[in-house]
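Sample 3 of the quickstart, ligand S-adenosylmethionine:
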Amino acid sequence: MDIYSGKSPAHPWFLVTTSLRPTPAQTDLAKHLAVTLQAPFVKRNDFSLETLSTRFSAAGLVVVSSQRVSYISGGSEFFFHPGIAKLRIKELKSGKTDQMIAAMSLLPGDTVLDCTLGLGADAVVAGYISGACGRITGLESSPVIAALVERGLATYTDKDQDITPAMRRVKVININYKEYLASLEPCCFDVVYFDPMFRFPRRNSPSINAARSLADHAPVCREAVAIALKVATKRVVMKERRNSSEFARLGFKTIVGGRYAPVVYGVIELRGKSQ
Ligand SMILES: C[S@@+](CC[C@H](N)C(=O)[O-])C[C@H]1O[C@@H](n2cnc3c(N)ncnc32)[C@H](O)[C@@H]1O
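Result:
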């Protein structure tokens, strides 16, 4: 088996490979991702994914196939898919309220800093509302999640004429939001948004479950909210479980969400700031 990249691996220890019998383009993409992710590229040959992980003691494998780029670990597969965003955009088009958009009070042309990009669903829905004149920046501290979601957002095409441009509007940056927020000038986004991994994990979200081993589980810190309040001109919004003590700890007094929804949005409104 050929190791392409000599760089040290990212955490957790994983490899990059292809599906069986890859095209030259798939092999090139896998090698490119290996360099980006500072992980070894391993030629697939005829080995099963299980054999590759055992031989290299890898916790997971990034696999480039003709359909997609996935991260496979412990029998679960994580890959970009705009499913939930599509459903929410369809509902918005039919006149229904999207509680995140309501909490952000988002309008066409608005700019959003999504500090916790994850699978990108919230960012794509925000991109649909903010439109061609808006700007959505998504931050993700996990290199694998950032790389897979960035590629999905840039390449996935949908029949619905509104979905593809909404995905293309999201700019992905692989960085910890604490570092990024600290580098920003005051008032450079309309909305700053946090959707941290829940302190008490929910079990009924399969796509997030698959990415769980890669994700950053640290709670939002007060310092980050304090900087977000300087960076945003309109609102700082955080998604959390209903009745979560995180809202009070971080200073979110206004809560927006459906009456029986298990997940709601804390809002801090910034009235009177220059826009
Ligand atoms: C619950 S998920 C976000 C889901 C996302 N809102 C969506 O619609 O798919 C939280 C994500 O934020 C990332 N994250 C957590 N802390 C972070 C930090 N300090 N900086 C950047 N990303 C972070 C995690 O790695 C995870 O991918």
